[in-house]
Amino acid sequence: MPVKIRCRGCEKVLAAPDKAKGRVIQCPKCGTKLKVPGGPAKSKTKARAKAPAAPKDPDDFLAGVDLTDLEHEEERICPFCAAEMDEEETICRACGMNTETGRMDAREAKKRARKGPDPALFYSKAWSDSWAFMLEHWRLAVRTGWYLASMSILVSICSFMVAFCEGGPTKFFWFCLTALSFFGMLGWVWHMTYKVIESTMTRDEKLLDRVHFDLFAVISLGLRFVLWPWVVLIPSHFVVGAVFILMLLTGMIAAEAGSVEGFFASLGVSFILMLVVYGSGLLFCLLAYPLATVHLTQKYTYKAWILWELLKIILKNFGPACYFFVVALVVALPALILAIPVIFALLPTLNPFSAAPIDYVTGGITSWILELAGESGSHAEAGGWLYRLIIIPLNLIAALILLAPFWMAAAFPITFIMRVNGLLGHYNRERLGLVNFIKPDTPANFWPRVLAHLIDGCLWPLASLLTVKEPKALIGAWVLNAITLVCALFLEAMLPFVALLWQFYMYWMYFAVNESQTTRTTIGKDAFGLIVSDVNGKQLTLGKASMRVFGRVACGLTLGLGYLLVAFTPEKRGLHDMLAGTKVTWRGDR
């Protein structure tokens, strides 16, 4: 009876006659060679010159065909998938089976089990794909260059005003503007890097059409860029602090013994160790940068902030990370060479508004303009209002002429490197261990909770501004704010007691009120996707959340040992969780 077989090439169902069992036939529509399952294959013979009879059934088109005409003596066919093979091959390139052992080749099995693209393609695509991306999105590079030039000029103006002004509050104002402008520069690069990585990994180029400059967003990203290595190196801070205290105690013992040299020697050793630890830590962060940025674009970003998580990621992706920096160095080399004359023109201050070469040129032009106008007197001398009225716009033009071409030229390599970073994540997504899914009610690990607590530790003094869900607690907070202000102005003797009460109330309000709401989280926990609930997974009452706050006080009395229980208990619960009957879990995905 006919044997039904589906063609792999065109998906057409063929009806092969019974005598075709065990033989290799060819699909008449697409030409794909197919092996018909069934009995033993007959020996190959030479082609016969017999014309096939017209088939009676359209689906049974092979009924009258001499199937031996479809086989060729000079071709070697894989016995498992009927694909053509060379004479010297033992492993089929189509199905990966080893024709000698009858099993799947181990290397092919590993390759076929891999999810996602082949990581080996990253090394070639890093050049060709990034080059094509840069040419296609040249407008994005121009925008990046213009933003960087504008923000760098703004940084120069603000930093010049810091040195020019004399009053402390005025200097502080301009210093803050300088820092915000600098964060804006870094933040735009990080913002664009995130967008390029996201579009590369999702293969959605339309994401880049919706990138807009948001000053506050890029400033916050720039601040995150500055804080990222500090947070990653938190364990190093403890090591450096412990070594410094040990060396200081050793120095004090030596000083009491009359050895002043021993005291300074101990301080010198601690300083050298601090340089070694932080120097190696910064090099580590530099190597981890392209890997961490990929994690920061994912739904759960905690691995990008934890030292040993990044260490494991680097060990698995050391080759691609090093190759990223090789490509980045080669691509950025022309911009680095172009930066040399720019730096020389900005010496000694690296500021176009106070650099000696620029001041020499603009000062000469200003004096020439004043001479042509016939102006003289103190107001026309260097430092006079008329002199400054002319030289400041000239310095601004000089800064634009000097910095704009440099940043425009540097923006194209920056765009190229962003794409390389995206390809690094795309082709190595399996080895990067990206986290985009966590089951609900999964206990939160120790370090994500530590990072969340660090954020909350900076925000709880602002509880009266950040916590608005409980009206009664909010009224109490503002009444306490007023009492504290009155004591600070008129009743200084009561200020220590009132300040202590204010701190505890704000601490209680920030944690207890926020964790007892329907959101069940604080700002720090929400940044990592963590929630607080009781042991049954239900929302906390205000009383249970308050008990958890008192449990935090108990952990503080144990010098933090109560918090360490999170790292060693299976349920990941600290002393404050045990006392209050609560747990911290991932919000998770359903």
Explained architecture:
The protein is mainly alpha-helical and 590 residues long. The chain has three domains: 74 residues, no CATH class; 313 residues, no CATH class; 141 residues, no CATH class. Helix content is 61%, strand content 5%. The chain contains 20 helices and eight strands. The strands form four sheets. It has a two-stranded antiparallel sheet. It has a two-stranded antiparallel sheet with strand order 3-4. Strands 5-6 form a two-stranded antiparallel ribbon. Helix 16 packs across helix 18.
- Per the principal axes of the C-alpha atoms, what is the gross shape? globular
Order of helices and strands: EEEEEEHHHHHHHHHHHHHHHHHEHHHE
Number of strands: 8
- Spans with pLDDT under 50 lasting ≥5 residues? 41-62, 67-74
Biggest sheet, spatial arrangement of strands = 1-2
What structural class do helix, strand and pairing data support?
mainly alpha
Task: Give the count of structural domains.
Answer: 3
